[in-house]
Amino acid sequence: MSFELDADDADGNPMRVVYGGKLDGVARPHEGYPVTVSFAMLEDGSIESVAWKNGVAVDRWTRKVTADGRAMLICQRGCDAAGKAIVNSGLYRRMD
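Now predict its structure.
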């Protein structure tokens, strides 16, 4: 499984991150970042990614594609730089 993220960082600078791995739940190093990342297929068919820092889960995403394949719901749970819990979700629609 591979993901590509094109976004702006907190200072408005463009960034591009490509990451992925086997859907086996094993945390592996993420090149260039001080975290390991695991990927797993959950019972409901969604994919879960977890970023681990020093053995602690610091960010967790679930991705679920709708039955018609036209949209994907991404939910994120983690913490900001100050350690405050964050929850974010977005529905991404296919545009073709």
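The longest strand covers residues 56-65.
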